[in-house]
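Q: Convert this sequence to structure tokens.
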Amino acid sequence: MSLFTPSRSLSQSEFVALIAILMAMVGMSVDSMLPAMGIIATELGAAEPNDRQLILSTLFGGLTLGLWFYGPLSDAIGRRRALVLGLVLFVAGSLLCAMATSFPMLLAGRLLQGFGAAGPRIVSVAMVRDLHAGRSMARIMSIAMSIFILVPVFAPAIGQGVLLVASWRVIFAGLGVMGLIAFIWFMARQPETLNPENRRPFTPGGLWRAVWEVAGNRVTLGYILATGAIFGAFIGYLNSTQQIFAEAYGLGAAFPLYFGSLAAGFGVASLVNARLVMKFGMQYLSVRAGIVLSVIAVALLVTELILGSLPPLWLFMGAFGAIFFCAAILFGNYNALAMEPMGHIAGSASAIIGTATTGLSLLVGTVIGQAYDGTALPVAIGFASMGMAAVAAQNWAETGRTKLAAIKPAR
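A:
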């Protein structure tokens, strides 16, 4: 048996572990870099203090392009070849970043790294769908996601640990090694999951028809806008979090501990949502989570305006802990609600929705991040305004669903 032609399927535990590491590559590429952003920008000669945020923005830009590309490609040529292409590009981008001699060169590497990381992120979910359905698929994804959720808790601490003993370039080299390990593991152990008879040609015409169908569905479009608004506020926070914690609050090397404690709220909220959604439904939970998020963000904004300075650290942590709890509920439910009318074109619709929401959130998040002025005002304004926009978009989507149900002829 050749190293690159596995003859049998993995055990379920090994398959889950492989899927988890493939899904975690995006998170590691984002969160492990946060403690090093200021050092990288200074060493490579970034022109403005906020230019460090481009280290994240360009990664998300590459991810946006990749989400559009890999889903339809894997439907046409198979999961293995599409995923391997993504891993190769991810490793190449990581090495380019590690060897960067200028800030533009680093950003080019991040763009390539993000485009490559989109392959494992999208194709791994498609592989689960190929092999499992119903409760079995839900169980596999729940276990993999529980591992994935741990990434933002520990990744910044890993990055900070590297900085204590080595250069920031080692972080990028480590990401490249992670991609290489995933490549060897995947090629040696995971067979193709998409049978040749189930493959579909990669045609621009078919993809554009799917685009117009997604854009023409009021429910799906409304939840794309809602997801983009909330995720955009979150990217704005990610862009400026190192500056807020390490510099504005003066936490320095302790920054990963505070970031990780807030990120842990996402995991708790995901578990709570999984229990409550069966009782109350996605729409009910989403509306209330969006309202609570907006109210807390407005309260934090007003408090900072009254104080005329940064709010106390305990207040900032408490407010954003609650905001992230609500945001985690919104992320999961909004995506499911956007996909709900698209079951007949699930593969293409997933790629289109992912591209649209990531692209919109990148635009919003870049604006919020670049507005950083040494205070928490921009992120508070971002979450307040985007929370209200998300609630409005959901209301618009659900009004469209009600109107459609009213005019649908009875059977």
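The domain at 10-194 is CATH 1.20.1250.20 (Growth Hormone; Chain: A;).
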